[in-house]
Amino acid sequence: MRRPALLGLLCLVLSGCGLQNHLPFVAGPDPYQPAGDSETMQRVEGRVPTVAALHQAPGDVWPGPVQAEPTLESLEQQQLQLPNQATPPALPGAIGSSTPPPDLQPLPVIPPIPQVAGAPAAPPPAPSAAFPVRGGMATPTGGTSAYRTVTLPGGGTGIVVPNGNGTSTIIRSDGSVETVATPK
Q1: What is the per-residue pLDDT across 52-86, written as a single tens digit (0 to 9) for each?
Q2: What's the distance, CA 136 to chain centroid?
Q3: 180: which DSSP letter?
Q4: Is the pTM of this model over 0.70?
Q5: Cα(139)–Cα(179) distance, integer angstroms
Q6: Mean pLDDT across the stretch 157-162?
Q7: With 158 labelled, which of 37, 76, 109, 120 sits at a CA distance of 20 to 30 A?
Q8: How far apart are CA 178 and CA 160, in angstroms?
Q9: Between the CA atoms of 176, 177, 181 and 184, what dihedral angle is there, to the nearest 10 degrees?
Q10: How many CB atoms lie within 10 A of CB 25?
Q11: Contacts of 145-149 spanning 24+ positions with Cβ under 8 A
């Protein structure tokens, strides 16, 4: 019984002696041990690092006065150009010029798209008759087939959007929403 205990104690003692780069009972260095010889690694390992002393830089290290940024006017006067390059002539109608280009043509008028036979006709225009809403009658003031603007009871305004199922949603100017039967 004494021999196994002595052997275990011997292994335990030897595992901490002089095997700084080896794991006990494993051949080779520790693959997870950091490597390097930087100043930080020297301090971590308990060695005194060799650090070069700081010296004052010779001369004036401060920058000179801040140069004023050029204005657009000074840049235009300088006409920034490459060396040995002639200044290009100013073009009439160029960006920044107040002279319109001489050959400005009006845009062509595009004719309306003809109605295709068998295609559904455009929806009918918005009705001009008042219709009932919460608090009174709403009067249409404009819009298209996709929406209508209305004047609501009490002087407010709103937008009527048809839902396509026989109802319309009224969005009032105060943000409230109401669903009504689609006005005819």
Answers
A1: 888 888 888 888 888 888 888 887 777 655 556 66
A2: 47
A3: E
A4: no
A5: 16
A6: 92
A7: 120
A8: 9
A9: 70
A10: 7
A11: 148/183
